[in-house]
Amino acid sequence: MDRTVIAYVIYLVVSIALTVWVARTLSRNGRIFLADVLRGDERLADAVNHLLVVGFYLVNLGFVALYLSDDDTVQDTRGIFEALSTKLGVVLLVLGAMHLGNVYVLNRIRRRGMLEREQVPPVRPQEWIAPRVGA
User: What are phi and psi of 119, to 5 degrees?
Assistant: First the structure.
């Protein structure tokens, strides 16, 4: 078997395994965060969580597939390790960037929700308070 093909197979197996592991970890631990962001609406949190996981898989597996091709032919075992370290390093950086992007967006949504909850008007909108004399 050609060493380049061996490098491709190892790259695909490791990249797909990492993508699945990260997606499951984010899904499991992110559900609680989403429930808080969405004010305890469990069904909506589960739906958003599922949509985020599907998008995560599509983007990351698409990137892994696009990044598979290589112009150089792997000549020896050292070349396999060099090619894999470069490819897997880039995949890990993309996974990390996707994770940080998701956390940033969800944190912004959470902060906005917290600010909205804190902005309770002093009176109900239907009520009226007479102005004070001398105020």
Answer: -90, 70
pTM of the model: 0.69
**Cα–Cα dist 23/127, whole Å:** 49
Number of Cβ within 10 Å of residue 53's Cβ equals 15
State which amino acid sits at residue 84. L
- Chain centroid to CA 12: 20
DSSP 132: P
What is the three-class DSSP state of 114?
Answer: helix
Give the DSSP H/E element, type plus range, for residue 70.
none
pLDDT for the residue 82: 84
The CA distance from 14 to 20, in Å, is 10
Q: In the structure encoding, which two tokens stand for residue 14, read together?
A: 């490791």
